[in-house]
Write a structure and sequence with these properties.
Bound molecules: glutathione
InterPro entries: Glutathione-S-Trfase_C-like (IPR010987), Glutathione-S-Trfase_C_sf (IPR036282), Glutathione_S-Trfase (IPR040079), Glutathione_S-Trfase_N (IPR004045), GST_C (IPR004046), Thioredoxin-like_sf (IPR036249)
Strand content: 5-15%
Mean pLDDT: 97
Organism: Dongia soli
Strand order of the largest sheet: 2-1-3-4
Protein name: Glutathione S-transferase family protein
Helix content: 40-55%
Order of helices and strands: EHEHEEHHHHHHH
Distance between the termini: 21 Å
Number of helices: 9
CATH topology of the largest domain: Glutathione S-transferase Yfyf (Class Pi), Chain A, domain 2
CATH architecture of the largest domain: Up-down Bundle
Radius of gyration: 17 Å
Shape: globular
């Protein structure tokens, strides 16, 4: 059985929604980040980076990185139809979107939520946060334009794990409070993904 180490509202949401979509048995193990459980030896033994999420596989090995976990699970369970196969023409765009989101939007969100970690001077945090807000809006704007032309999903009519990843990021709205009004095509994708029973189950646990 899979075990997903999660924290409510954290980057474990996308892997959890993917697990729900592929409908395999899995266990949720909550990590109390507010009390620093993710920095304790027991969790660091699973993920030395001390970040949420981590996933223990049925064979006992553990992996981390939310985008990697989503890609792995979608490939390991192709019957769920969450990922174009490596030979599929949609595969490059699928990988491009997940990697783009995890390499641009997600780090900008981290700079917003943990701005004090990105400066050695306490007064520097506000500027880092402000820059992150601007960058996050720029990235959402590009995603919105893509969806306007090619939506409703990142791969057009085809739903994939990339949309689940995009959905997770769209729920972090403190860093983009006007997302729903400014980026209506992102909102449309989020509404479609958020209405899926598997995603609803994930949201309930968060
Ligand atoms: N690169 C990691 C980043 C994960 C990450 O930063 N997770 C946050 C929660 S959303 C976390 O663990 N925060 C606790 C901390 O950094 O102290 C991934 O994509 O899985």
């Amino acid at each position: 059985m899979y075990t997903l180490y999660y924290s409510p509202g954290a980057a474990s949401m996308a892997p959890q929604a993917v697990l729900e979509e592929i409908a395999v048995p899995f266990k949720l193990q909550k990590i109390d980040t507010a009390n620093g459980e993710h920095q304790q030896p027991a969790y660091l033994a699973l993920n030395p980076a001390g970040k949420i999420p981590a996933l223990t596989l049925p064979d006992g090995t553990t992996m981390a990185e939310c985008a990697g976990i989503c890609i792995f699970l979608a490939d390991r369970h192709p019957e769920a139809g969450l990922a174009p196969a490596p030979t599929d023409r949609a595969r490059p765009a699928y990988l491009q979107w997940i990697m783009h989101l995890t390499n641009t939007l997600q780090p900008a969100d981290l700079r917003f939520y943990y701005s004090e970690r990105y400066t050695a001077e306490t007064e520097g945090a506000a500027g880092i946060k402000a820059r992150a807000v601007a960058e996050i809006a720029e990235i959402w704007s590009r995603v919105d334009k893509h969806l306007e032309k090619n939506g409703p999903y990142l791969l057009g009519e085809r739903f994939s794990a990339a949309d689940i990843f995009c959905f997770m990021l769209s729920t972090w709205q403190d860093s983009c409070p006007d997302l729903n009004t400014r980026f209506p095509h992102v909102k449309k994708l989020a509404d479609l993904v958020g209405a899926r029973p598997a995603v609803q189950r994930m949201l309930k646990a968060n």
